[in-house]
Design brief:
The protein is an alpha/beta fold and 334 residues long. The chain has 13 helices and twelve strands. Strands 6-7-8-3-9-10-12-11 form an eight-stranded mixed β-sheet, with helices on both faces. A four-stranded antiparallel β-sheet has the order 2-1-4-5. Helix 5 crosses helix 7.
Length: 334
């Protein structure tokens, strides 16, 4: 690296996370790597159980240990390895430099405290504010995320808000300290389509305002299409494909990504049947020796069950972990 070149905002390098449960080891994340730049949106996409949320918790340093542990890898914020820091220093990064929005706002918010108390606490703990000053900041944040009558609603409890409004409160809490990185874990889960669009538009506007790097964790290809710059596709804890967003939708290079795209309704293919991916993801405590997608892959051959493929380049910024990535990439192009 050139001496004048700044390191990426966030780097996740060869991250492995495992859970030791009774007599087995569940390998939830297996070698995840990605980088995130200022103002960039990176989407991490995959089915439930692919390791997306576990990886995010590892980055945040909020895994339940035990049974979870990071067995290998680094998480670097502006070049500093967070995994090597003592917990006291690591805690200072949470909320202040890296923040997270959780997928279930009702569970994430404390039901016995008002939303005003919960938002104010961020300023009290990290900024040393007290009383009226902290509450004034909370009101400003609620207005910023467009909660009507913010000053009055400051005294309300989480259950008194709709799902969309609770998610806005979670966004307000995450943005309270103006972090450099925001991790949004399924931020539109259980919301109707209109509210989903409002939440994603709000996140994009706030990201541009604060120049944050945004990591968007989702299984929804529709949510990703309009907001992401790059996509990392995960399956069984591993990266299957990484690509600029438009390139991935136009020319996927991994059979798993092809299957995901084929199973989603498209306006330009009205009347055509959806094609689901057959089978189920593998048991994370007994992963197959070859490609983890091989048992479900329509293109699998003997080598796929025996050798795990490495990420290989198929285009500019586009890589796929498939023995036949070039063939898949070419077939889709044609």
């Amino acid at each position: 690296m050139d001496k004048t070149e700044r390191p990426p905002l966030l780097e996740v390098d060869d991250l492995h996370v495992e859970f030791r449960v009774r007599d087995s080891v569940v390998r939830a994340v297996n070698g995840l790597s990605y980088t995130l730049a200022e103002s960039e949106t990176l989407a991490i996409l995959g089915e439930s159980g692919s390791g997306k949320s576990v990886a995010a918790q590892a980055v945040m340093g909020i895994l339940d240990t035990p049974p979870a542990r990071v067995s290998r890898g680094e998480v670097r914020f502006r070049g500093e390895n967070l995994l090597a820091l003592p917990e006291r220093r690591r805690r200072a990064f949470r909320g202040d430099r890296i923040a997270m929005i959780f997928q279930d706002a009702l569970s994430a918010l404390n039901p016995v405290f008002t939303v005003g108390d919960q938002i104010s606490e961020m300023f009290q703990v990290h900024r040393g504010m007290r009383g009226k000053a902290a509450r004034a900041e909370a009101v400003e944040l609620m207005e910023r995320v467009r909660i009507p009558s913010a000053r009055t609603r400051l005294r309300d409890y989480p259950h008194q808000f709709s799902g969309g409004m609770r998610q806005r409160i979670m966004i307000a809490m995450a943005l309270a300290l103006e972090p450099d990185v925001l991790i949004a874990d399924e931020p539109t889960t259980a919301l109707d389509v209109t509210v989903q669009s409002q939440i994603m538009r709000l996140l994009k506007e706030l990201q541009e305002e604060l120049r944050m790097g945004l990591v968007l964790i989702t299984h929804d290809l529709g949510v990703v299409a309009g907001v992401a710059d790059r996509i990392v596709v995960m399956y069984a804890g591993s990266v299957m494909e990484e690509s600029p967003v438009r390139e991935l939708y136009r020319r996927p290079a991994h059979p798993y990504t092809v299957g995901l795209l084929a199973s989603v309704p498209r306006l330009d293919r009205r009347g055509e049947p959806l094609v689901p991916i057959k089978g189920a993801p593998p048991d994370a405590s007994a992963l197959p020796p070859g490609c983890p997608f091989a048992p479900r892959c329509p293109r699998a051959e003997e080598i796929c069950t025996r050798e795990r493929p490495a990420l290989s380049r198929v285009g500019d910024g586009h890589s796929a972990a498939c023995h036949f990535a070039e063939e898949v990439f070419g077939a889709v192009a044609n």
